[in-house]
Write the C-alpha coordinates for this entry.
Amino acid sequence: MSKPEVLLLENIHPAATEVFERNGFVVHTRPGSLGEDDLIEALQGMSMVGIRSNTKVTEKVLASSPELLAVGAFCIGTNQIDLAAAAQRGVATFNAPYSNTRSVVELVIGEIIALARRLVEKTSRMHDGIWDKSAQGSHEVRGRTLGIVGYGNIGTQLSNLAESLGFRVIFFDTADRLAHGNARRVGTLDELLAQADVVSLHVDGRPGNAGLFGAAQLAKMKPRSLFINASRGMVVDDVALREHILSGHIAGAALDVFPVEPKAQGEPFESALRGLPNVILTPHVGGSTQEAQEEIGLFVSGKLSRFLHTGSTELSVNLPEVAVPQLQTGFRTALLHHNVPGVLAGVNQLLADHEANVTAQYLSTRGEQGYVVTDVSTALSPGALDRLRDEEHTIWLRTHSGAAG
Ligand SMILES: NC(=O)c1ccc[n+]([C@@H]2O[C@H](COP(=O)([O-])OP(=O)(O)OC[C@H]3O[C@@H](n4cnc5c(N)ncnc54)[C@H](O)[C@@H]3O)[C@@H](O)[C@H]2O)c1
Protein backbone atom coordinates (compact mmCIF):
# COMPACT_ATOMS: atom_id res chain seq x y z
CA MET A 1 0.00 0.00 0.00
CA SER A 2 1.40 3.43 -0.89
CA LYS A 3 2.16 5.86 1.91
CA PRO A 4 -0.32 8.70 2.56
CA GLU A 5 0.94 12.12 1.46
CA VAL A 6 0.72 15.44 3.25
CA LEU A 7 1.37 18.93 1.90
CA LEU A 8 2.71 21.50 4.39
CA LEU A 9 2.57 25.17 3.37
CA GLU A 10 3.66 28.46 4.93
CA ASN A 11 6.86 27.39 6.71
CA ILE A 12 5.26 25.12 9.26
CA HIS A 13 7.78 24.21 11.97
CA PRO A 14 10.01 21.22 11.01
CA ALA A 15 8.83 19.40 14.15
CA ALA A 16 5.62 18.64 12.22
CA THR A 17 7.54 17.00 9.36
CA GLU A 18 9.32 14.75 11.85
CA VAL A 19 6.01 13.63 13.40
CA PHE A 20 4.44 12.93 10.01
CA GLU A 21 7.45 10.98 8.76
CA ARG A 22 7.56 8.94 11.95
CA ASN A 23 3.90 8.10 11.31
CA GLY A 24 4.54 6.87 7.79
CA PHE A 25 3.57 9.92 5.71
CA VAL A 26 5.36 11.29 2.68
CA VAL A 27 5.77 15.01 3.41
CA HIS A 28 5.87 17.78 0.79
CA THR A 29 6.72 21.27 2.03
CA ARG A 30 6.44 24.72 0.44
CA PRO A 31 7.53 27.95 2.12
CA GLY A 32 4.63 30.22 1.10
CA SER A 33 0.88 30.00 0.78
CA LEU A 34 -0.89 29.14 -2.51
CA GLY A 35 -3.80 30.79 -4.28
CA GLU A 36 -6.95 28.80 -4.98
CA ASP A 37 -6.02 27.29 -8.36
CA ASP A 38 -2.42 26.47 -7.40
CA LEU A 39 -3.64 24.94 -4.17
CA ILE A 40 -6.10 22.72 -6.01
CA GLU A 41 -3.33 21.51 -8.28
CA ALA A 42 -0.92 20.92 -5.41
CA LEU A 43 -3.52 18.95 -3.45
CA GLN A 44 -4.01 16.25 -6.06
CA GLY A 45 -3.02 12.96 -4.44
CA MET A 46 -2.72 14.52 -0.95
CA SER A 47 -4.50 12.97 2.03
CA MET A 48 -3.85 15.98 4.24
CA VAL A 49 -2.82 19.60 4.05
CA GLY A 50 -1.20 21.77 6.72
CA ILE A 51 -1.62 25.54 6.48
CA ARG A 52 -1.26 28.66 8.61
CA SER A 53 -3.37 31.78 8.35
CA ASN A 54 -2.61 32.88 4.77
CA THR A 55 -3.92 29.91 2.82
CA LYS A 56 -7.64 29.89 2.11
CA VAL A 57 -9.26 26.46 2.01
CA THR A 58 -12.44 27.35 0.17
CA GLU A 59 -15.45 25.31 -0.87
CA LYS A 60 -13.98 25.11 -4.39
CA VAL A 61 -10.66 23.79 -3.05
CA LEU A 62 -12.48 21.14 -1.04
CA ALA A 63 -14.76 20.18 -3.93
CA SER A 64 -11.75 19.81 -6.23
CA SER A 65 -9.68 17.69 -3.82
CA PRO A 66 -11.63 14.43 -3.41
CA GLU A 67 -8.71 12.59 -1.80
CA LEU A 68 -8.32 15.12 0.99
CA LEU A 69 -9.21 13.63 4.38
CA ALA A 70 -8.13 16.36 6.79
CA VAL A 71 -6.89 19.93 7.09
CA GLY A 72 -4.47 21.05 9.80
CA ALA A 73 -4.49 24.73 10.76
CA PHE A 74 -1.04 25.15 12.32
CA CYS A 75 -2.24 28.25 14.18
CA ILE A 76 -5.09 29.27 16.48
CA GLY A 77 -7.71 30.67 14.11
CA THR A 78 -9.65 28.67 11.53
CA ASN A 79 -11.43 31.52 9.67
CA GLN A 80 -9.33 30.81 6.58
CA ILE A 81 -11.05 27.43 6.18
CA ASP A 82 -14.64 26.90 5.07
CA LEU A 83 -15.37 24.68 8.06
CA ALA A 84 -18.97 23.93 7.14
CA ALA A 85 -18.04 22.89 3.60
CA ALA A 86 -15.24 20.73 5.02
CA ALA A 87 -17.62 19.09 7.50
CA GLN A 88 -20.18 18.43 4.79
CA ARG A 89 -17.56 16.49 2.85
CA GLY A 90 -16.30 14.76 5.99
CA VAL A 91 -12.93 16.54 5.88
CA ALA A 92 -11.76 16.79 9.48
CA THR A 93 -10.11 20.03 10.59
CA PHE A 94 -7.78 20.49 13.53
CA ASN A 95 -6.01 23.53 14.99
CA ALA A 96 -3.84 24.33 18.03
CA PRO A 97 -5.90 26.42 20.42
CA TYR A 98 -3.65 26.06 23.47
CA SER A 99 -0.08 25.57 22.24
CA ASN A 100 0.92 29.20 22.83
CA THR A 101 -0.46 29.54 26.34
CA ARG A 102 2.92 29.76 28.02
CA SER A 103 4.11 32.45 25.58
CA VAL A 104 1.15 34.69 26.46
CA VAL A 105 1.74 34.20 30.17
CA GLU A 106 5.44 35.08 29.92
CA LEU A 107 4.61 38.26 27.98
CA VAL A 108 2.06 39.30 30.61
CA ILE A 109 4.47 38.69 33.49
CA GLY A 110 7.13 40.75 31.72
CA GLU A 111 4.65 43.54 31.08
CA ILE A 112 3.45 43.70 34.67
CA ILE A 113 7.00 44.21 35.92
CA ALA A 114 7.79 46.66 33.10
CA LEU A 115 4.72 48.75 33.97
CA ALA A 116 5.34 48.63 37.71
CA ARG A 117 8.88 49.96 37.09
CA ARG A 118 7.77 52.42 34.35
CA LEU A 119 10.37 50.88 32.04
CA VAL A 120 8.81 52.25 28.86
CA GLU A 121 9.43 55.80 30.01
CA LYS A 122 12.85 55.02 31.45
CA THR A 123 14.15 53.41 28.28
CA SER A 124 12.72 56.02 25.93
CA ARG A 125 14.30 58.81 28.00
CA MET A 126 17.65 57.01 27.87
CA HIS A 127 17.33 56.78 24.07
CA ASP A 128 16.73 60.52 24.12
CA GLY A 129 19.97 60.95 26.07
CA ILE A 130 18.32 61.76 29.42
CA TRP A 131 19.67 60.18 32.62
CA ASP A 132 16.71 60.13 35.04
CA LYS A 133 17.56 57.94 38.01
CA SER A 134 14.43 58.70 40.02
CA ALA A 135 12.53 55.93 41.88
CA GLN A 136 9.33 57.98 41.62
CA GLY A 137 6.40 55.74 40.60
CA SER A 138 8.54 52.55 40.51
CA HIS A 139 7.34 49.58 42.54
CA GLU A 140 8.13 45.96 43.26
CA VAL A 141 5.37 43.50 42.45
CA ARG A 142 6.03 41.33 45.50
CA GLY A 143 3.05 41.39 47.87
CA ARG A 144 0.74 43.08 45.34
CA THR A 145 -2.65 41.66 44.37
CA LEU A 146 -3.13 40.36 40.84
CA GLY A 147 -6.75 40.03 39.70
CA ILE A 148 -7.21 37.58 36.84
CA VAL A 149 -10.47 37.81 34.89
CA GLY A 150 -11.01 34.52 33.02
CA TYR A 151 -9.32 31.58 34.76
CA GLY A 152 -8.91 29.20 31.80
CA ASN A 153 -5.76 27.83 30.20
CA ILE A 154 -3.92 31.14 30.25
CA GLY A 155 -5.43 32.57 33.43
CA THR A 156 -4.48 29.52 35.51
CA GLN A 157 -0.92 29.41 34.21
CA LEU A 158 -0.52 33.11 34.90
CA SER A 159 -1.82 32.45 38.39
CA ASN A 160 0.93 29.91 39.06
CA LEU A 161 3.79 32.03 37.72
CA ALA A 162 2.53 35.19 39.43
CA GLU A 163 2.38 33.45 42.81
CA SER A 164 5.96 32.37 42.42
CA LEU A 165 6.87 36.06 42.02
CA GLY A 166 5.17 36.88 45.31
CA PHE A 167 1.81 38.09 44.03
CA ARG A 168 -1.36 37.46 45.98
CA VAL A 169 -3.68 36.13 43.26
CA ILE A 170 -7.45 36.51 43.09
CA PHE A 171 -9.59 35.52 40.11
CA PHE A 172 -13.07 35.85 38.72
CA ASP A 173 -14.54 33.38 36.24
CA THR A 174 -18.14 32.87 35.17
CA ALA A 175 -17.58 29.08 35.13
CA ASP A 176 -16.64 26.85 38.06
CA ARG A 177 -12.85 26.80 38.14
CA LEU A 178 -10.60 25.18 40.67
CA ALA A 179 -8.16 27.60 42.34
CA HIS A 180 -4.48 26.83 41.70
CA GLY A 181 -1.96 27.18 44.54
CA ASN A 182 -3.02 29.84 47.03
CA ALA A 183 -5.14 31.79 44.53
CA ARG A 184 -8.56 32.82 45.79
CA ARG A 185 -11.76 32.93 43.81
CA VAL A 186 -13.97 36.00 44.19
CA GLY A 187 -17.71 36.00 43.56
CA THR A 188 -18.04 39.06 41.31
CA LEU A 189 -16.00 41.16 38.92
CA ASP A 190 -16.61 44.21 41.14
CA GLU A 191 -15.10 42.39 44.11
CA LEU A 192 -11.98 41.68 42.06
CA LEU A 193 -11.73 45.27 40.83
CA ALA A 194 -11.96 46.63 44.36
CA GLN A 195 -8.96 44.56 45.52
CA ALA A 196 -6.57 44.16 42.60
CA ASP A 197 -3.44 46.28 42.07
CA VAL A 198 -3.13 44.69 38.62
CA VAL A 199 -6.10 43.52 36.53
CA SER A 200 -5.33 41.11 33.70
CA LEU A 201 -8.04 39.96 31.25
CA HIS A 202 -7.99 36.39 29.92
CA VAL A 203 -11.60 35.78 28.92
CA ASP A 204 -12.61 34.01 25.73
CA GLY A 205 -14.21 35.57 22.66
CA ARG A 206 -17.88 34.70 23.24
CA PRO A 207 -20.15 37.45 21.86
CA GLY A 208 -21.37 38.42 25.36
CA ASN A 209 -17.85 39.57 26.24
CA ALA A 210 -17.91 42.48 23.76
CA GLY A 211 -17.58 45.66 25.82
CA LEU A 212 -17.08 43.70 29.06
CA PHE A 213 -14.59 46.28 30.26
CA GLY A 214 -15.72 49.90 29.83
CA ALA A 215 -15.77 53.17 31.77
CA ALA A 216 -17.78 51.71 34.67
CA GLN A 217 -15.34 48.84 35.26
CA LEU A 218 -12.26 51.04 34.88
CA ALA A 219 -13.71 53.49 37.43
CA LYS A 220 -14.08 50.63 39.93
CA MET A 221 -10.40 49.70 39.71
CA LYS A 222 -8.14 50.87 42.53
CA PRO A 223 -6.47 54.27 42.00
CA ARG A 224 -3.00 53.91 40.38
CA SER A 225 -3.61 50.27 39.44
CA LEU A 226 -2.34 48.56 36.27
CA PHE A 227 -4.43 47.10 33.48
CA ILE A 228 -3.56 44.35 30.97
CA ASN A 229 -5.50 42.89 28.07
CA ALA A 230 -3.99 40.06 26.01
CA SER A 231 -7.33 38.31 25.41
CA ARG A 232 -9.63 39.88 22.80
CA GLY A 233 -9.68 43.45 21.53
CA MET A 234 -13.46 43.79 21.56
CA VAL A 235 -13.57 43.21 25.32
CA VAL A 236 -12.19 46.67 26.20
CA ASP A 237 -13.43 50.19 25.46
CA ASP A 238 -10.15 51.80 24.37
CA VAL A 239 -11.49 55.36 24.51
CA ALA A 240 -12.59 54.91 28.13
CA LEU A 241 -9.21 53.38 28.95
CA ARG A 242 -7.45 56.37 27.39
CA GLU A 243 -9.43 58.75 29.63
CA HIS A 244 -8.58 56.76 32.77
CA ILE A 245 -4.89 56.74 31.88
CA LEU A 246 -4.83 60.46 31.14
CA SER A 247 -6.61 61.19 34.43
CA GLY A 248 -3.97 59.12 36.25
CA HIS A 249 -6.54 56.73 37.74
CA ILE A 250 -4.87 53.88 35.82
CA ALA A 251 -1.09 54.08 36.31
CA GLY A 252 -0.19 51.97 33.30
CA ALA A 253 -1.56 49.51 30.76
CA ALA A 254 -0.38 46.84 28.35
CA LEU A 255 -2.49 45.91 25.34
CA ASP A 256 -1.72 43.15 22.87
CA VAL A 257 -5.15 43.01 21.20
CA PHE A 258 -7.36 45.74 19.75
CA PRO A 259 -10.95 46.17 18.56
CA VAL A 260 -9.64 46.86 15.05
CA GLU A 261 -6.31 45.34 14.05
CA PRO A 262 -4.46 45.86 10.76
CA LYS A 263 -4.98 42.91 8.44
CA ALA A 264 -1.52 42.80 6.91
CA GLN A 265 2.10 43.29 7.87
CA GLY A 266 3.13 46.96 7.63
CA GLU A 267 -0.41 48.41 7.52
CA PRO A 268 -0.91 51.50 9.71
CA PHE A 269 -2.18 50.98 13.24
CA GLU A 270 -4.83 53.37 14.54
CA SER A 271 -5.80 53.43 18.21
CA ALA A 272 -6.94 55.84 20.92
CA LEU A 273 -4.15 54.38 23.03
CA ARG A 274 -1.23 55.54 20.93
CA GLY A 275 1.12 58.07 22.49
CA LEU A 276 0.06 57.59 26.13
CA PRO A 277 2.51 57.46 29.05
CA ASN A 278 3.38 54.10 30.59
CA VAL A 279 1.36 52.17 28.02
CA ILE A 280 2.83 49.15 26.24
CA LEU A 281 1.28 48.37 22.85
CA THR A 282 2.20 45.14 21.07
CA PRO A 283 0.88 43.89 17.70
CA HIS A 284 -1.01 40.75 18.88
CA VAL A 285 2.19 38.83 19.53
CA GLY A 286 1.28 37.29 22.89
CA GLY A 287 1.44 33.80 21.45
CA SER A 288 4.06 34.43 18.79
CA THR A 289 7.29 32.73 19.81
CA GLN A 290 9.51 30.10 18.23
CA GLU A 291 8.64 27.75 21.08
CA ALA A 292 4.92 28.17 20.47
CA GLN A 293 5.46 27.47 16.75
CA GLU A 294 7.21 24.23 17.63
CA GLU A 295 4.43 23.27 20.07
CA ILE A 296 1.85 24.00 17.38
CA GLY A 297 3.79 21.87 14.88
CA LEU A 298 3.89 18.93 17.26
CA PHE A 299 0.29 19.29 18.39
CA VAL A 300 -1.46 19.54 15.03
CA SER A 301 0.69 16.91 13.28
CA GLY A 302 -0.07 14.58 16.20
CA LYS A 303 -3.82 15.15 15.88
CA LEU A 304 -3.76 14.61 12.08
CA SER A 305 -1.67 11.43 12.38
CA ARG A 306 -3.94 10.02 15.05
CA PHE A 307 -7.00 10.80 12.95
CA LEU A 308 -5.61 8.90 10.00
CA HIS A 309 -4.30 5.94 11.96
CA THR A 310 -6.97 5.48 14.63
CA GLY A 311 -10.05 7.45 13.51
CA SER A 312 -9.78 9.76 16.55
CA THR A 313 -11.42 13.15 15.97
CA GLU A 314 -10.48 14.46 19.41
CA LEU A 315 -10.37 18.30 19.31
CA SER A 316 -11.55 18.47 15.70
CA VAL A 317 -13.16 21.86 15.15
CA ASN A 318 -15.76 20.68 12.66
CA LEU A 319 -16.57 16.96 13.01
CA PRO A 320 -18.21 15.18 15.96
CA GLU A 321 -15.48 14.57 18.53
CA VAL A 322 -14.63 11.00 19.42
CA ALA A 323 -11.41 10.27 21.34
CA VAL A 324 -10.42 6.65 20.72
CA PRO A 325 -7.31 4.81 21.89
CA GLN A 326 -4.88 3.12 19.51
CA LEU A 327 -6.42 -0.21 18.51
CA GLN A 328 -4.30 -3.06 19.90
CA THR A 329 -6.07 -6.09 18.48
CA GLY A 330 -9.12 -6.70 16.31
CA PHE A 331 -10.76 -4.48 13.75
CA ARG A 332 -12.22 -0.97 13.81
CA THR A 333 -14.86 0.69 11.67
CA ALA A 334 -15.17 4.48 11.78
CA LEU A 335 -18.43 5.71 10.27
CA LEU A 336 -19.25 9.36 9.69
CA HIS A 337 -22.93 9.72 8.90
CA HIS A 338 -25.86 12.11 8.73
CA ASN A 339 -27.33 12.57 12.18
CA VAL A 340 -30.70 10.84 11.72
CA PRO A 341 -32.41 8.31 13.99
CA GLY A 342 -31.64 4.65 13.50
CA VAL A 343 -28.07 4.74 12.14
CA LEU A 344 -26.50 3.25 15.27
CA ALA A 345 -29.20 0.58 15.48
CA GLY A 346 -28.52 -0.27 11.81
CA VAL A 347 -24.77 -0.61 12.43
CA ASN A 348 -25.31 -2.86 15.42
CA GLN A 349 -27.87 -5.01 13.59
CA LEU A 350 -25.42 -5.51 10.75
CA LEU A 351 -22.67 -6.47 13.20
CA ALA A 352 -25.02 -8.93 14.90
CA ASP A 353 -26.01 -10.42 11.51
CA HIS A 354 -22.30 -11.06 10.85
CA GLU A 355 -21.73 -12.43 14.37
CA ALA A 356 -19.17 -9.71 15.03
CA ASN A 357 -18.43 -9.37 18.73
CA VAL A 358 -18.29 -5.65 19.66
CA THR A 359 -15.44 -4.91 22.10
CA ALA A 360 -15.89 -1.13 22.26
CA GLN A 361 -18.09 1.50 20.71
CA TYR A 362 -17.81 5.32 20.76
CA LEU A 363 -20.44 7.73 19.49
CA SER A 364 -20.70 11.47 19.19
CA THR A 365 -22.90 13.86 17.25
CA ARG A 366 -22.39 17.45 16.17
CA GLY A 367 -25.11 19.36 14.36
CA GLU A 368 -26.11 17.41 11.31
CA GLN A 369 -23.50 14.69 11.65
CA GLY A 370 -22.87 11.67 13.80
CA TYR A 371 -19.69 9.65 14.17
CA VAL A 372 -19.55 6.12 15.49
CA VAL A 373 -16.36 4.12 15.98
CA THR A 374 -16.85 0.42 16.63
CA ASP A 375 -14.18 -2.11 17.60
CA VAL A 376 -14.90 -5.76 16.89
CA SER A 377 -12.80 -8.81 17.63
CA THR A 378 -12.52 -10.08 14.04
CA ALA A 379 -12.42 -8.38 10.66
CA LEU A 380 -15.73 -7.74 8.89
CA SER A 381 -16.18 -9.22 5.43
CA PRO A 382 -15.90 -6.90 2.40
CA GLY A 383 -19.61 -7.52 1.78
CA ALA A 384 -20.58 -6.29 5.26
CA LEU A 385 -18.39 -3.21 4.84
CA ASP A 386 -19.94 -2.48 1.46
CA ARG A 387 -23.40 -2.61 3.02
CA LEU A 388 -22.35 0.03 5.57
CA ARG A 389 -20.72 2.13 2.87
CA ASP A 390 -23.82 2.01 0.70
CA GLU A 391 -26.24 3.09 3.46
CA GLU A 392 -27.96 6.30 2.38
CA HIS A 393 -26.80 8.20 5.48
CA THR A 394 -23.12 7.24 5.26
CA ILE A 395 -20.69 10.09 4.54
CA TRP A 396 -17.60 7.89 4.79
CA LEU A 397 -16.54 4.60 6.30
CA ARG A 398 -12.92 3.84 7.19
CA THR A 399 -11.36 0.77 8.71
CA HIS A 400 -8.34 0.20 10.93
CA SER A 401 -6.65 -3.01 12.04
CA GLY A 402 -5.12 -3.52 15.47
CA ALA A 403 -1.32 -3.23 15.68
CA ALA A 404 -1.14 -6.77 17.06
CA GLY A 405 -4.04 -8.06 14.97
N1 LIG B 1 -2.68 37.68 22.67
C1 LIG B 1 -2.53 36.55 22.04
O1 LIG B 1 -1.69 36.41 21.16
C2 LIG B 1 -3.37 35.38 22.46
C3 LIG B 1 -2.86 34.09 22.32
C4 LIG B 1 -3.64 33.02 22.78
C5 LIG B 1 -4.90 33.25 23.30
N2 LIG B 1 -5.40 34.53 23.38
C6 LIG B 1 -6.73 34.79 23.93
O2 LIG B 1 -6.66 34.69 25.36
C7 LIG B 1 -7.95 34.38 25.88
C8 LIG B 1 -7.87 33.28 26.91
O3 LIG B 1 -7.39 32.09 26.30
P1 LIG B 1 -7.52 30.68 27.05
O4 LIG B 1 -6.87 29.66 26.18
O5 LIG B 1 -7.11 30.82 28.47
O6 LIG B 1 -9.11 30.50 26.99
P2 LIG B 1 -10.01 29.51 27.86
O7 LIG B 1 -11.21 29.26 27.05
O8 LIG B 1 -9.19 28.37 28.35
O9 LIG B 1 -10.38 30.41 29.15
C9 LIG B 1 -11.26 31.49 29.10
C10 LIG B 1 -11.90 31.59 30.48
O10 LIG B 1 -12.64 32.81 30.56
C11 LIG B 1 -13.85 32.55 31.27
N3 LIG B 1 -14.79 33.60 30.94
C12 LIG B 1 -15.43 33.82 29.77
N4 LIG B 1 -16.16 34.94 29.84
C13 LIG B 1 -15.98 35.45 31.08
C14 LIG B 1 -16.44 36.60 31.74
N5 LIG B 1 -17.25 37.48 31.12
N6 LIG B 1 -16.05 36.83 33.01
C15 LIG B 1 -15.23 35.94 33.64
N7 LIG B 1 -14.76 34.84 33.07
C16 LIG B 1 -15.11 34.59 31.79
C17 LIG B 1 -14.25 31.17 30.80
O11 LIG B 1 -15.16 30.56 31.68
C18 LIG B 1 -12.89 30.46 30.78
O12 LIG B 1 -12.57 29.88 32.01
C19 LIG B 1 -8.81 34.01 24.67
O13 LIG B 1 -9.64 35.10 24.33
C20 LIG B 1 -7.79 33.78 23.57
O14 LIG B 1 -8.30 34.04 22.30
C21 LIG B 1 -4.64 35.59 22.99
The pocket of nicotinamide-adenine-dinucleotide is lined by residues 98, 100-101, 104, 149-155, 172-175, 177, 202-206, 209, 212, 230-232, 256-257, 284, 286-287 (CB under 6 Å). The longest strand covers residues 358-366. DSSP finds 13 helices and 16 strands in the chain.
